[in-house]
Amino acid sequence: MAELDQVDPFAHATVAVQDVHVRYRVPSTDAAERRRHTNPISRAARAVLGNDPKVLVRALSGISFVARSGEQIGLVGQNGSGKSTLLRIIAGLENPAKGKVLAESTPVLIGVNAALVPDLSGEENIRLGCLAMGLSPEQAEAAIPEVKELAGLGKSIFLPMKTYSSGMGARLRFAIATAANPHILLIDEALATGDAAFRERSEARMQGLRDGAGTVFLVSHAAQTIEETCTRAIWLNHGRLVLDGPAEDVALRYRKWAWAVAKDKPDEARTIIERAFAEREQTYVHVEEPKAPRQYNARHVRPQSAARRQDKGKS
Ligand SMILES: Nc1ncnc2c1ncn2[C@@H]1O[C@H](COP(=O)(O)OP(=O)(O)OP(=O)(O)O)[C@@H](O)[C@H]1O
C-alpha cells in the first residue's frame, strides 16, 4: 500500500477527461415548448418553414476523470444517462461543447473504427477491419486465425455478414477490434449479446489487453457484468457523474438505486443519488498545454551578442 501511495497517479494516465460538456439542440413536438416560443418572428418562421422549436439536451455536464493503464472501467447508468456519448467523445468522434479529452494513443471504439461491409464474408471483413485499423497486410493475415477463434462463429465466418444475427455481428466486431491490440479499447454493450462461452473468451482477451497495460472502457446496464469484469466503475445520471470508484462499491449502490426506481420509490432513489453525490471525491483535471518554444530571430539576437562581445573586450 505504501508503494502504491508513492506512485504518481498521472504517470500512467491513458485518458484524461477534463470538465466535458456535450449539448444537442433537437426539435421538439412538445406543445408546451411551442407555447413558450411566443416570439412572433420565430412563430412566423415556424409557420413558413414548418419546423418544430428546438430544445437543449444536456447529454454530459462537467465530466472529469483520469483513466490509468491496467484499468477496466465500467460505465453504468439508466437509458439516456450519457454513457454512449462519453464513449464517442473519448473516441474523438464528437467534439465537446466545453472541456477537453486527451488520450495517450488512438482509442478504438468497437464497431466504428472497423469499417465492415455487409456483402463480404466474416473472414473477408476480418482482413478489411484489420487493414482499416492500421495493420499491415502481413499482420492482418497473421491475426485472422486468432480473430476467428475469438469470434467463434464456426462455418458462418465464410457467409456474408449481412446474414448474421445482431449478436453474431457484435461478436465479430469485438474480435476484430481487439486484433490490433489497442491500448485504449471502448466497448458499448458488445458482451451482453454473447453466450457464456463467448463471454469467457472475451473476458480473457480483455484481461490480456489490461495485462499489456491497456485501458478498457465497458458500457453496461448490468451491474453484475460491471462487478464481475471491471476494476473501477463510473455511474452517470442525466449526464452528470454520480460516483467514480471501485466497481463493486459503485455497482452495489447503482443496483440499490435501480431497485428503488423499479419499485416506484422515488424518495429512496433520490436519497441514494444525493448521498453518492455528497460522498464522491471531486476530481479536478488540469491539462497543461505544452509551451511553444520561444522564437528568436537573427535581428533580435545579433545586437545583444554584439554588445556582449564588446563587454567581454572591455573586461
Ligand atoms: N445525436 C444526438 N442528437 C440529439 N440528442 C442526442 C444525440 N445523441 C444522444 N443524444 C441524447 O443525449 C442523451 C444521452 O444519450 P446516450 O446515448 O449517451 O445515453 P446512454 O446512457 O448511452 O443511453 P442507453 O443506455 O439507452 O444506450 C440522451 O438524452 C439522448 O437523447
UniProtKB/TrEMBL annotation:
**Which InterPro entries has this protein been placed in?**
AAA+_ATPase (IPR003593), ABC_transporter-like_ATP-bd (IPR003439), ABC_transpr_TagH-like (IPR015860), Bact_Polysacc_Export_ATP-bd (IPR050683), P-loop_NTPase (IPR027417)
Q: Listed GO molecular functions?
A: ATP binding
**Listed SUPFAM superfamilies:** P-loop containing nucleoside triphosphate hydrolases
Record's keyword annotation contains Kinase: no
Arranged from A to Z, the UniProt key words for this protein are: ATP-binding, Nucleotide-binding, Transport
Q: Which PANTHER family match?
A: TEICHOIC ACIDS EXPORT ATP-BINDING PROTEIN TAGH (PTHR46743:SF2)
Q: What is this protein called?
A: Teichoic acid transport system ATP-binding protein
Gene3D superfamilies hit by this protein: P-loop containing nucleotide triphosphate hydrolases
Could you tell me which residue ranges the ABC transporter domain spans? 36-263
Q: State the signal peptide span.
A: none
The family note in this entry says: Belongs to the ABC transporter superfamily.
Q: Where is this region: Disordered?
A: 288-315
